[in-house]
């Protein structure tokens, strides 16, 4: 599933190509989506390209090709195409044992496990474009699933290493749109970027706090951050 802005931009590019035969300029995209700068358009185009919706044609200015549309608009049209989630690389820290984890591959654990969807990769570092697309499913211990809807995300980055969350781990998330201070959450920033951070409040603002002194706490107005879920468990493969 695309974010609202990604969806709007994809349709704008598609309609312009149908009408004029050429894609819109970055200035036209910025105005159509009411964004403050063209950097936001660059992020959206990169996200759409990484998800396989568009392609930038080499050696040509303003050259974009729409490869597919969301199934909600063109059902069945994209069955042959496959999504490849985006990746953000992070340096690896030393890995202490997490306080709550599940080592995949243990027969006793698997026998009692339940299955939840993996919804892509999330940055434990600088926020990246939000990913809301099921890639596969995994089995988790039933005691991690204590009511409500759950999903998993693969972690890329090192900003949460002091919370025992490392590059390559898989985090189990309970869907929720509210959080208490101190909880580790999936935060959606400006409806475009997702990150895994500790939730704090700074007066009327929201602070997304890393668990790595190399990263600064990021402060946002309350209307810019949406809670997408809370960390309830962690899976690590050895």
Automatic annotation (TrEMBL):
User: Active site: which residues?
Assistant: 159, 197
- Quote the catalytic activity from the record: Hydrolysis of Ala-|-Gly bond in repressor LexA
Return the EC number: 3.4.21.88
| Record domain LexA repressor DNA-binding: where | 2-63
> Which residues belong to any copy of the Peptidase S24/S26A/S26B/S26C domain?
117-232
Which InterPro entries has this protein been placed in?
Answer: LexA (IPR006200), LexA-like (IPR039418), LexA/Signal_pep-like_sf (IPR036286), LexA_DNA-bd_dom (IPR006199), LexA_repressor (IPR050077), Peptidase_S24_LexA (IPR006197), Peptidase_S24_S26A/B/C (IPR015927), WH-like_DNA-bd_sf (IPR036388)
Q: Which CDD domains match?
A: S24_LexA-like (cd06529)
Specify whether Hydrolase is a keyword of the entry: yes
Q: Name one GO biological process term.
A: proteolysis
Query: What are the site positions for Cleavage?
Result: 124-125
DNA-binding segment(s): 26-46
Question: Looking at the keywords, is Transcription regulation present?
Answer: yes
Q: Which GO terms describe its molecular function?
A: DNA binding; serine-type endopeptidase activity
Give UniProt keywords alphabetically. Autocatalytic cleavage, DNA damage, DNA repair, DNA replication, DNA-binding, Hydrolase, Repressor, SOS response, Transcription, Transcription regulation
| Subunit structure, as described in the record | Homodimer.
HAMAP family from the UniProt entry = LexA
Outline what the protein does: Represses a number of genes involved in the response to DNA damage (SOS response), including recA and lexA. In the presence of single-stranded DNA, RecA interacts with LexA causing an autocatalytic cleavage which disrupts the DNA-binding part of LexA, leading to derepression of the SOS regulon and eventually DNA repair.
Q: Which family does it belong to?
A: Belongs to the peptidase S24 family.
Protein name as annotated: LexA repressor
Q: What is the species listed in this Swiss-Prot or TrEMBL entry?
A: Aminobacter aganoensis
Which gene produces this protein? lexA
